[in-house]
Design goal:
mainly beta, 8-stranded parallel β-sheet, 5-stranded parallel β-sheet, 2% helix
Amino acid sequence: LDVSSESAAGGKIVATGDRVMIDAGSSLDATGATGGGEIYVGGGWQGGDENIRNASQTVVDQGAELKADAQAVGDGGTIVVWSDSGTYYNGNISARGGEQAGNGGHVEVSGKENLAFYGTVDTSAPNGSNGVLLLDPSNITIVDGAAGQTGTYADWSDHSDRGNWVIPETVLEGLAGDVELTAVTNIVIEDLSDDTLNLSADSISFFSNDESSGSSVGGFYMDPSDTIKLNGAGNLTLQGGSASVPSAG
């Protein structure tokens, strides 16, 4: 699907239904010379756009590409991958700012309940401020190494029972720009074999227990032997109803 423009901003793509798959080799292109366009797969921002039906399940398979770059000047566009139940993401998203001027775009990849995040996102800007990536399911678990990062999603039949709703350590470490992880309940970083979450992001925020209701519970948890290292020039933010980082520096 191609709504790109060589002289103006990119256009708009909406792809939704009860279940949505962007298969390997697919391309959704909303790039534009003066600004990136909009791509909505399975719903609008945080599932809150009444004009876009929310999918119950969404898959973006390995090798699929979603692009809303500004090519010359202008800001990167907006790309959303959403579902009300579970989202499996292993594709490549780009919402870059223009080569001459412009900021990076806004990207959300999430499921209201569950998210498996194995792919890449680029919201960088060569001559502007980097954009923002938002991941905001019910719970977030970051697992050791590259577990589950490769392979394709083959069959709808086992999607609703998928138990591996995680973000591999190596995937999170490779994300650039500003990254925000928001969970209704818990964010858990499992024990890392190399003892370090070595982040490339400019800024990263871990918001657990987002207080979306009066009964929200949860917190941020990591192993006391592990270290979070932020290599960018921005901020590291931790927030939760409870925080468990015993005996850590």
